[in-house]
Amino acid sequence: MSSADNRRIVREGRRNGGGKEKGFFQKVHSPPSPLNDSLEGEIQAFLIDEDQLHTYDDLTKVNPVTPSTVLKCLQARYSVKVFYTHAGCTLVALNPFQPIPDLYTLDVMKEYHGAPQPQEFKPHIFIVAEEAYRNVQGQLEPVNQSLVVSGESGAGKTWTSRCLMKYYATVAASSSVVKSQDTVERIERRVLDSNPIMEAFGNACTLRNNNSSRFGKYIQLQLDRCQLLVGASVQTYLLEKSRVACQLANERNFHIFYQMMKMATDEQRKEWKMPPGQCFVWLPNSEKTVEEDCFHETVEAMVHLGINTERQRQIFRILAGILQLGNVNFYSSTDESQPCNLDEQSKDFSQRAAELLCVPAEELQMCLRVRMLKAGKQSVLKPCSQAECSMRRDCLAKVIYAQLFDWLVTFINNSICADKSTWCNFIGVLDVYGFECFQINNLEQLCINYANEKLQQHFVSHYLRAQQEEYVSEGLEWSFVKYQDNQSCLDLLEGSPVSVFSLLNEESRLNRVSDAKTLRVRLEKELCDNANISWDKFSKEPHFTVAHYAGKVHYQIQGMVEKNKVFISSSPPGFFQGGRQRKNSLESLMKILHTTTPHYTRCIKPNPDCKPLTFKKEEVIMQLEACGIVETIHISAAVLTCPAVVSQLDLLEDQRKKILSQCAFTIQCCWLKHRRRRHHARHQSATLIQAVVRAWLVRRCVQRRNRAAAVIQNTWRKWRVRLLKNTYRILCFLLSSIQKPVTVRGWPMGLALASAPSITMSLTATGFQKMVSVMASLHLPSQRGAYTVKPNQFSQELASIRAQPKGSVKLHYQRSPLLYADRQPDMKSDVTGFNAILLEKTL
Ligand SMILES: Nc1ncnc2c1ncn2[C@@H]1O[C@H](COP(=O)(O)OP(=O)(O)OP(=O)(O)O)[C@@H](O)[C@H]1O
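A: This is the predicted complex of the input protein with adenosine-5'-triphosphate.
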């Protein structure tokens, strides 16, 4: 593809809604964009080969890159039960909605973990896991890793996070090493045991997912010096506590309540003050049974984590107290100056609630029905209206539940967190719930979408922007791909001096019953300059509309201030809550993300009904557009195919010395850190490694650099010093091959290597084997139109040589017809001639 082609894609993007107002990421709920005329032919040509579409395991190989071609490939893969696909720096995970045998077994884990080049294997979540793990092993900055798993509800984030945790609990299991096996084994078990507890208390059955996480989490897996798992910690965000007191039709409360009800013994019911047959307003749809209603599993996990029987009793009593509270009703008093009344039943429920929550019954009733107004130093008691009483009851329940959840998280952390002195690096798994847009949206959606805006900003700045800037700094001719910067939307939500959240917080602090219309007027008055907010003049309900990166969302203002008050009042320090804390908590998450190497996995929900193996194109395209996957692919792909990059290899060569000296320092520091001897040899070799990697980087995407360096460095570290010389020679050879740019599509390095008639060098048998693996590791996974040499080809070709006596080994590369299949005729003499000189020089 030419640079004109690149630009064409940019233009297509713009025409389809690029630019600030209609960005790539903008449309979520609109059908796929109409195709550009000039590209339609190419698209058709690409799609005509239907049988081949499923073979695109990296979407950067798709040409042209458009929503429709990408979609078709994913669909084709899904139909042949292939669920993972690379998309440049992102892994796309399609939810199969059915268990896939043998996809996540221990053997598969071992296979990916043990492979010299896991990325050569079929795309899999284990590749992401392994890549992050090897980055830690390689100690390349930033050493700590973040695995960002995103997607809409039901897309498979929790599943993916669990897979990742299991992977690390297996491959980084500290129990595999000596020491007191019992203790260490417990760590992995405990880390995994945190899942059922968090899910019981934080997940619920929703219309979109029977086991929907109603909170976000960042799990930090702590690794020691030997990259073994020694502990973990969990940070949670945005628990949807409103669910405790209010569930949408056909949805349920948090699983734990149903688990309790279904499995309770008579004795427990007695303890929870629940006479047989008592129903609870806050437990709708309890006849619906889901897989997750597994009380024993939750209790078992609690035991493993050290929550003793007495603590468990206290927890369940609190939960029972919340349920009793939900049955309390209020009736307006005939005398307005008097608090609302409670009928006999409600009195009874509130009595039970008070006992279970260990508070005086009178006080509980008072605080629900009367509020205290402060006027200067004086305080006045004012009876609440019926609606206010109900609101206060709901708020109290939410606050209690949030505190309980928070307590559990702290307990879990105390149980699984390793002492700071025992771990030095971490791999974080971030599972946050995706962008939400319902018919009625309120504060919960605003917070979730705000968090998603922040994550999108991180993705944009970290990948889309950073990668392009790096291309430019490499001296590559690069026309910027337009992407939508969501800063103005973030300014609207959190900016200073005024923003949606600042106004909301101000309203919440006023000591009066909030009025939706007043807030609506203030928002309009103060924020009218920001193009991301708008109002439907004809709407009767007070609302505002925010143009998020993923689409427009209408937010209902009614009830928003009251909810925000709960956010504020239930904010223990450090928890993601109202006002400033909400911002700070997200900021701290962003800070972690910025200081780690990120890996992105985008989970896609192929149909809204969670049906196995059903692929609805409209659903998928909306999700692809919402996360800007096409732009990601485009940026990653363009650098592989843009001839401008290849032609600039000369330029790179001019810069080589400068690059070498820069790299030399870095890598030398790295070697010193590992307390190796023979700095000089290492320095030279390392310099060359860096140069090779650097050249590789230019042709491939920047993201591969870390992997390349890690692979080489690891291999290097394991080698005997004696082999350094040979490595050095090989790398000289590789480097030299890069020096001569070959201006055909594809890989000069691979080309030169493959076309070298023979090389003679001294190697031991093991040295030789290792050299093969390094050579193989320097190769790229095969790509469309590129010239690749697969590792197995190497080993096949070299198999005969292995038998030769130690000492002098002659490598003979056979010229497989396959390797020369797409070479231009005039290349042959060039390459051969070139290699002849090269060999002379090298050997
Ligand atoms: N790789 C997979 N293989 C088999 N089933 C899967 C896979 N990924 C997801 N599922 C199925 O899809 C369901 C929904 O997945 P999951 O709960 O992980 O979604 P989610 O994105 O975390 O949703 P939410 O945001 O609502 O928590 C799971 O319960 C599981 O049945």
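The chain has four domains: 3-243+422-442+602-639, 251-416, 454-558, 697-842. The chain is about 50% helix and 10% strand.
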